[in-house]
Structure formats: structure tokens, C-alpha cells
Amino acid sequence: MADVITVPQVQPVQPALRFLRVIPGVLLLAAVGYAGKLLEQNVGAYAKAHHWTFPNIEYVLWAIVLGLVISNTVGVPELFRTGVATYEFWLKAGIVLLGARFLLGDILKLGGVSLVLVAIEIAGSLAFMTFLGRLFKLKPKLTTLLAVGSAVCGVSAIIATKGAIEADDEDSSFSIAAILALGALALFTFPLIGHALQLSDRAYGLWAGLGVDNTAEATAAGALYSDAAGKLAVLVKSTRNAMIGFVVLAYAIYWASQGQAKSVGNKAAFLWQKFPKFVLGFLLISVLATYRFFNKDQIGALANLSRWAFLLTFAGVGLRTNFGEMRKQGLRPFAVGAIGEVAIAGFTLALVYGASKIFGW
Amino acid sequence: MSAEAVGAKTGSRRKLSLDTWAVLVAFLLALLVRTGVFKHIPW
Questions:
Q1: I need a surface site. Which of A92, A188, A309, A348 has the fewest CB within 10 A?
Q2: Tens of pLDDT along A27-49?
Q3: Is A305–B33 a contact, with Cβ atoms under 8 angstroms apart?
Q4: Are the Cβ atoms of B39 and A301 closer than 8 angstroms?
Q5: Percentage of residues in chain A with pLDDT exceeding 90?
Q6: In this structure, what is the dihedral angle of CA atoms A57, A60, A64, A66, given to the nearest 10 degrees?
């Protein structure tokens, strides 16, 4: 009887409490992101007023760096952690809203090219990471997680695959740490290489979308180069994300055939469950924009809402990256990830270079 | 009602994924912009 009484008392409070628990962290995301925006506006103006030579640093980088400094010095207090973890929610909402800036024809044209490149990238990355995992004698399921994380979409792919192939928690922690550490490095190296090679916005956006694993880092790496490159990086990365269900299903079937995971019953339901729904939201908003459901001012407003959502995301990328925690996960998976990522970055750069020669970008 | 039964009952309730929530919130915002509730979003 006591159970009957306690349940109605607890249930209505839980969602409200859960909502209240995210508020401090979301405010921290907003504060760090907005500080990044203020720094972008004021540091450049201050340097110019004092005739200093200072590079124009975008709010994206300021927000990430501020977050990194907080996370790796004073740390993020427990009170803020639940809210900081919502950065992925803002990322996905931002991507859906960004759909308003794409016309369906552009998506089909660019999406078609990127789909071919994504298919080549996924096949090449899976094969190479599997080879590296065997070479370094990593556990087979750890190798699978690293391969999926670097070939498809970082942390989300690792979490989806972990459940499907019944991998250990330790293996998924290793893989997530390696992918996140390498994603943080890519944030700084990709724009530098892009500028050094004088890549066009289109070529760089394609490269960032193909070569950077985690969606948040790919979005940030693109936005660090230019607005146009950022838009394209999101489109290409979303195409990669859309492949997640197929890759996870293939691995689930493989590990089930080895007797080391549950067999997959309804494959269509499995694919739908793993499919990133925000990709559909992105497409639907772009269909609405294409058929003039929104006027020009409204599209501008939606684009700005998307920027605000990304501002919270970029602050979250910095705040959740703790190099000390990553070091604790061990060196071997990180080494495999690092070698793989460098190879994949080179491979995808060659793909983009080839495509830019063919299509004259 | 046992604790297990309560757990089973609450567990069977369909929960929306983070992705779905993000899509719903984005569409709600788009609707508010479309209907003129949010007229101008500064940047």
C-alpha cells in the first residue's frame, strides 16, 4: 500500500525537478558563449584602436577556449553538469533551425555529392580502423567502437553501437575519450591546415564534415573557417549521421553471428530507432523554406536562433572537455585513434581535393 | 501495487529521445517566428 501512496507523490515532481536541475548549467553555457561573443566584438576593436596586429578570433573559438580553461582549471562544479550536458540538445535544435538557410535543390545537389564521398569515407575509415585495431591487438569490440566512432559520428555512434553489440562500459569509455580528445585537436588543426592550403569554403566545409568525427566539433571546425564552410560542414556531417543506423545494424548482425550479441529482430524498427531524427527535422524545415512558408525576415530570425543554439553548443564543447580525465583512459586506444584520425583526415582531404578538381570548386 | 509493477508500468511509458525533443523545440520556435510572436531575433 505504501508504494501506491508514494508513486503519485513523487511522479509529478520529477519532471519539474529535472527541468530545474538543468537551469544552472544552461545559464553557464549562455554566460560562456555570450562572453565569447563579447570578446570577439571587443578584442578586435581594442587591438585595432591601439594599432596592434591581432588576428580576428571568432566567437566560436573564444567560447570553446573559455570553456576549456574553466573545465581544465577550476573544473565544472556538480551543480552545473546536468545543464552543461544539454549542449547536444542545443546542437540538434540548431541544426534543425539551420535547415531554413538551405533550399531543397542545394541539399539534393550537395547532398548527392556528399553522399558519395560519405560512403567512400565510411568504408575506408571502417576498414582502416579495423586494421589498426588488429595491428595494436586491441579487443575486437573496442576496435569496433573506435571504427564506428571515427567513421560515422563520434560519441552518438559509439553509444548506439555499444548497446547493439553489448560492448563493455570500459571499452565505450576508452573510445569516447579518444574520439573527444581527437575532436578537440581537430578543432584547432583543421582550420590551420585549411588556411595553409587555401581551401575554398566549399572544399573546407566538405572536409570538416567528412573528417571531424563528433557533430559538435565538426560544426565548430566548419564555423571557425567561415559561415559558408560551417553550413556545408553541418550538411555533410548530417549525411554521415544519417548512415548510423546502417553501420550499427551491420555490426549488430556481425556480432550476433559470432554469438556475442543479441540477434536483431525487426531490422526496419532497428534502423528507425537508430536514425537521427534531427536530420529529418533539418530536411523538413528546408522544405518549408524552399516552398516559402517563411518570408525573408523570418528566415533571418531562424538563422539567428540557430546561431544562438550553436553558441551554447560551442561553450559546451569546451566545458565538457577535460584532458586530465581523458589521460586516465590509457594511451593505446588513444594512439590507435590518433593514427587513424590522421590517416582519415589525409584520406578525406584527398577525396575533397579530387572532388574539387572534378567539379571545379 | 508492488515496486516492480510500478517500475514496469513507468518503464512502459514511451519516452521521447533527445533528438525528438530537439526537433519539437526547433519546430515550436519556427512556428513562433512564422506566426509573428518572435518578430526579430537579434544576433
A1: A188
A2: 999 999 999 999 988 887 888 88
A3: yes
A4: yes
A5: 39
A6: 60
Question: Does A161 score more than 60 pLDDT?
Answer: yes
Number of helical (H) and strand (E) elements in chain B, helices listed first: 2, 0
* Chain B residues with CB-CB distance to A302 below 8 A: 29-30, 33, 41
Write down how long chain B is: 43
Q: How many CB atoms lie within 10 A of CB A174?
A: 25
The pLDDT score that the predictor gives to residue A353 is: 87
Residue A53, pLDDT score: 73
User: Please, what is the average pLDDT of chain A?
Assistant: 85
Distance CA A59, CA A311 (A): 8
Q: Decide if A361 touches B, using CB distance below 8 A.
A: no
Would the CB atoms of A92 and B43 count as touching at under 8 Å?
no
Cα–Cα distance, A176 to A170 (Å, whole number): 10
C-alpha cell at A280: 529529418
DSSP state of A348: H
A136 touches chain B (CB under 8 A): no
C-alpha cell at A323: 584532458
Residue A206 near residue A345, CB atoms below 8 Å: no
The pLDDT value recorded for residue B5 is 42
**Residue closest to A332 by CA, chosen among A108, A132, A167:** A132
Residue A285 burial class via C-beta count within 10 angstroms: exposed 0-12, middle 13-18, buried 19 and up: buried
More confident residue, A361 or A174: A174
Answer yes or no: do A96 and B2 touch at CB < 8 A.
no
Q: Cell triple for residue A72?
A: 581544465
Domains of chain A, residue spans: 89-359
CA–CA gap between residue A65 and residue A36 (Å, rounded): 9
What is the DSSP track for A255-312? HHHTTSSPPPS-HHHHHHHHS-HHHHHHHHHHHHHHTTSS-HHHHHHHHHHHHHHHHH
ipTM of the complex: 0.76
Q: What is the spatial distance between Cα A10 and Cα A283, in angstroms, rounded to a whole number? A: 39
Angle at A11 between CA A8 and CA A14, to 5 degrees: 150
